[in-house]
From TrEMBL, chain A:
<feature type="transmembrane region" description="Helical">
    <location>
        <begin position="399"/>
        <end position="422"/>
    </location>
</feature>
<dbReference type="Pfam" id="PF02687">
    <property type="entry name" value="FtsX"/>
</dbReference>
<feature type="domain" description="ABC3 transporter permease C-terminal">
    <location>
        <begin position="313"/>
        <end position="429"/>
    </location>
</feature>
<feature type="domain" description="MacB-like periplasmic core">
    <location>
        <begin position="20"/>
        <end position="214"/>
    </location>
</feature>
<keyword id="KW-0812">Transmembrane</keyword>
<feature type="transmembrane region" description="Helical">
    <location>
        <begin position="309"/>
        <end position="333"/>
    </location>
</feature>
<feature type="transmembrane region" description="Helical">
    <location>
        <begin position="21"/>
        <end position="41"/>
    </location>
</feature>
<protein>
    <submittedName>
        <fullName>ABC transporter ATP-binding protein</fullName>
    </submittedName>
</protein>
<keyword id="KW-1133">Transmembrane helix</keyword>
From TrEMBL, chain B:
<feature type="domain" description="ABC3 transporter permease C-terminal">
    <location>
        <begin position="291"/>
        <end position="403"/>
    </location>
</feature>
<dbReference type="Pfam" id="PF12704">
    <property type="entry name" value="MacB_PCD"/>
</dbReference>
<feature type="transmembrane region" description="Helical">
    <location>
        <begin position="374"/>
        <end position="396"/>
    </location>
</feature>
<feature type="domain" description="MacB-like periplasmic core">
    <location>
        <begin position="20"/>
        <end position="249"/>
    </location>
</feature>
<feature type="transmembrane region" description="Helical">
    <location>
        <begin position="20"/>
        <end position="38"/>
    </location>
</feature>
<dbReference type="InterPro" id="IPR003838">
    <property type="entry name" value="ABC3_permease_C"/>
</dbReference>
<feature type="transmembrane region" description="Helical">
    <location>
        <begin position="285"/>
        <end position="312"/>
    </location>
</feature>
<keyword id="KW-1133">Transmembrane helix</keyword>
<feature type="transmembrane region" description="Helical">
    <location>
        <begin position="341"/>
        <end position="362"/>
    </location>
</feature>
């Protein structure tokens, strides 16, 4: 029966090619606009570390106070004093500080040319905390952190460039004139958005080349290549005074595995801030936050407003296209009232008429979906028009998006056909036959 | 024209009438808001930066080794001398940043040292006495820096130079009476810095929503960024020799000292590229919304054509009867045009509410401004014209129905 309805449907669609084309185009444009904007939104709003996002937290301590902070919110990073104090207290099962660094490395194959390479200064817990997979070797240990060793973990891609992909563990690498010992090579790992560094860096910038031992970076006075934000009077002069200032630049992360641990850590932060108040360093009562990955990404407004606006506008556009389709389907079905009357008189039930017209609408939806797919594929290259290359490259047409495009097109068209098909099924056979 | 019979007829086509009205309402809401966003975005695009964009380019120079402050300072001086010697180069200046870079250094600015809530915020440029000439900005009051005022700034050194040059927007914000020259300002310090010069216009490093209230407010301090990571060189080519200068400059720098990195992708940007990057999102948003508006209006128009054609087909017999009873071509034409006008007006009434609703949502969610009434009015006019235009062809066909149809059995 389904194939028969489909044949009937296709024949009817051929009868009014203009009307059919109009419907197919409306569905096609509507669904492709929604899908293109959705593909970007999906990429920028996704959970970068789904298996652990509810166990990883950013502790925030307000070291600026109510007169200097942003609308009562503590700053998104810590100053050196608070960062080191939180690490010393070691109240979480795992913890790390992070800041971005930029160093120079010799261009492989030509020792006289330098290229810049970017990475993160991190602590040993960084790797197990964020589930960084290893190709060769391992992370350094907590005692290496204490020893302030010159250890480095390379990314798979950087290892490929520098060592031709060979196992480089134990080898030395010179960056900006200093030697580092390779202790491990991380397998390709680049969560997007890069949740752990969004405060300081773009959430979608190029993947890091290396992870280097943070204490060593501090000893070498390697400055952050990312954000540094200060309030009040700037009275520091030089590296050591800067470390003692209220400038925030270090991004802290802690792993807390149960809600009781989270509650305990929150209490610890409160107590820490209260201590600072009593010691006279803060002239305000504790103002702390402890946000998990998704809460943090939300707070840092990682999703560009353009992505939300364009998705909202495209969805509105799709709804209008559907309203348009309802009207056209209604016109199309009711034009065949006489035909329906004959079929009903010959014994077709209302239910059958209903099914027949829904199948016809489904065929329109399928055609619209295919057109939408073509337009989506074409439109993907236009994403670069609206977003920076780093974000644009995240949007791509994959199997799930193809499936979603077709499904949305067909289901939406069938949903749009409910009312017109119901009207068609309500046709009174006697009246139609008489008026003929 | 009698409206009563039209309304009576519409009552028999409730579904179709409501659908068209709904479509018009939604289209109005989206088109008005889209036009408003497009206009806002495009108005940014044409904002001048104040610098000689046609002849400028920037070099992002990272040092390959960790220079001390003194080493970095002498490297910078040697680099600048090498750049200025190039035949296609007019002048060159060291800097921490450049207008429209998309982020950088900004300081809060106060009028007194005790002030807790700052008066405004300034984009900070640090450079030497060559910056103003290199950028091609116009000094409208006061004087430029002298070479002996320029100091070296090392890693995390917090120097408050005694003198500063500010943009006119900055001067006007701080001293609305126009007497800023010679006055002190306080920039996150108890030490004053005195305004010795005012430039006509110098756009900020970033042009985002956050900095919108501080548009064009910037200052220049006489300092050389002699830190280990590196700095920017802003280079002004001789008129018409930009391409040649952009080719010569990196070669000259590498020729002088190889221990540096000028990225092959981002290291060398003409100001046209800088501007393009800075406003990429604005332009993209305008284009995307423009396309959606056009397609949307086309689909709404086509939908009206489709449904009206169906109604005309349905009512051929009635039209024939009216014609036989003496109605003219013109009467029939007017009937359909008026019918569409009534439906459109209904849709627009709902649409205006939707438009403001959507605008309100955008205001709260995305810090957009409240839409001026002009956008709604122009949206209303566009949709009325679209409706009348779309209905014209089917209405014309209806008016050509012969009175004979009345006698024909359907």
């Amino acid at each position: 029966m389904f194939t028969y309805y489909l044949q009937l449907g296709l024949r009817s669609l051929r009868r009014n090619p203009m009307l059919t084309a109009l419907m197919v185009m409306a569905i096609g444009f509507g669904v492709s606009a929604s899908m293109i904007t959705y593909s970007v939104f999906r990429a920028v709003s996704g959970n970068p570390i789904p298996e652990k996002s509810s166990q990883l937290f950013v502790p925030q301590v307000d070291n600026w106070g109510p007169q200097q902070n942003e609308k009562g919110e503590p700053p998104g990073a810590l100053d050196y004093i608070d960062a080191i104090a939180l690490m010393r207290a070691h109240q979480a099962s795992r913890q790390t500080l992070i800041y971005p660094v930029m160093l120079s490395s010799p261009q492989p194959g030509s020792s006289s040319t330098l290229v810049s390479t970017g990475g993160y200064a991190v602590m040993s817990d960084f790797f197990p905390m964020f589930n960084v997979p290893f190709l060769y070797g391992n992370a350094w240990t907590g005692s290496d952190d204490e020893k302030r060793a010159a250890d480095i973990v390379l990314s798979e891609e950087f290892n490929q460039r520098m060592f031709g992909g060979a196992n480089s563990v134990g080898k030395n690498i010179t960056l900006s004139g200093h030697d580092y010992r390779v202790v491990g090579v991380a397998k390709h790992w680049d969560p997007s958005p890069r949740f752990y560094a969004v405060w300081s860096d773009s959430a979608f910038s190029d993947s890091p080349d290396f992870y280097v031992l943070l204490n060593r970076m501090l000893d070498l006075q390697i400055d952050t290549s990312g954000r540094n934000s200060c309030r009040g009077r700037l009275e520091f002069n030089g590296w050591n005074q800067w470390l003692q200032s209220d400038c925030v630049w270090m991004m802290p992360w802690v792993e807390l595995d149960s809600s009781s641990e989270v509650a305990r850590y929150r209490q610890f932060l409160e107590a820490y801030a209260a201590d600072q108040q009593h010691a006279g360093r803060f002239a305000w009562s504790p103002n702390i936050r402890l946000r998990n990955v998704m809460g943090w990404l939300e707070e840092q407004k990682v999703v560009p407003p353009e992505s939300r606006i364009s998705l909202a506008v495209a969805s509105g556009f799709f709804i209008i296209c559907l309203v348009n389709t309802i009207g056209l389907l209604l016109a199309k079905f009711m034009r065949r009232a006489a035909e329906i009357g004959v079929r009903r008189a010959l014994g077709a039930t209302r239910h059958e008429i209903y099914a027949q017209y829904l199948v016809e609408a489904g065929a329109v939806g399928l055609a619209g979906g295919v057109l939408g797919l073509v337009l989506t594929a074409a439109g993907m290259s236009g994403v670069g028009l609206l977003f920076e290359p780093e974000i644009a490259k995240l949007a791509h047409l994959d199997v799930s998006l193809i499936g979603l495009t077709l499904m949305v097109a067909i289901l939406a068209t069938i949903a749009a056909a409910f009312y017109p098909a119901w009207r068609a099924a309500q046709v009174q056979p006697a009246w139609q036959l008489k008026s003929n | 024209m009698q409206i009563q019979p039209i309304l009576a007829a519409l009552r028999r086509h409730k579904a179709g009438t409501l659908l068209i009205a709904l479509q018009i309402a939604l289209t109005l809401a989206i088109v008005c808001n889209a036009l408003f966003i497009i206009h806002q975005r495009l108005s940014h695009l044409s904002e001048p930066s104040g610098v000689d964009e046609a002849n400028l380019f920037v070099i992002e120079n990272f040092w390959g080794v960790q220079y001390s402050t003194q080493e970095a300072s002498s490297e910078i001086k040697a680099d600048l001398a090498a750049l200025r010697q190039l035949p296609a180069v007019e002048d060159a200046a060291p800097s921490n940043s450049y207008p429209l870079r998309g982020g950088g250094w900004d300081n809060f600015i106060s009028l007194t040292p005790e002030q807790i809530k700052p008066t405004t915020d300034a984009s900070v440029y640090i450079s030497d006495e060559s910056l103003i000439h290199t950028l091609g900005v116009k000094l409208i009051a006061g004087r430029d820096f002298t070479p002996d005022e320029v100091r070296d700034m090392g890693t995390r050194e917090n120097i408050h130079p005694p003198v500063v040059i500010v943009s006119k927007a900055m001067a006007d914000k701080l001293f609305p009476d126009g007497n800023a020259l010679g006055k002190p300002l306080y920039s996150m310090s108890a030490e004053p810095t005195v305004i010795i010069g005012i430039v006509e216009r110098l756009q900020r490093e970033e042009v985002n929503t956050w900095s919108a209230p501080f548009v064009n407010q910037s200052l220049i301090w006489p300092m050389r960024q002699a830190i280990p990571i590196g700095l920017y060189y802003i280079v002004r080519a001789k008129p018409g020799q930009l391409a040649a200068a952009m080719q010569e400059a990196p070669k000259a720098l590498y020729g002088r000292n190889r221990m540096r990195i000028i990225d092959s992708h981002d290291g060398l940007l003409s100001f046209a590229q800088v501007r393009q990057r800075a406003y990429n999102r604005d332009r993209g948003m305008a284009v995307l919304l423009g396309i959606i508006c056009v397609v949307l209006l086309a689909i709404t128009g086509a939908g009206i054509v489709g449904l009206t054609s169906f109604w005309v087909g349905q009512r051929r017999k009635q039209i024939g009867v009216r014609r036989a009873l003496g109605a003219t071509h013109r009467d029939i034409l007017h009937y359909f045009l008026t019918e569409n006008l009534l439906i459109s007006l209904g849709g627009i009434a709902v649409g205006v509410l939707l438009t403001f609703g959507l605008n309100l949502w955008l205001v709260t969610r995305f810090e957009l401004r409240v839409m001026p009434l002009a956008y709604v009015l122009s949206g209303v006019v566009i949709l009325l014209l679209l409706g009348q235009g779309a209905v014209f062809a089917p209405a014309l066909r209806a008016s050509r129905v012969s009175p004979v149809e009345a006698t024909r059995p359907v």
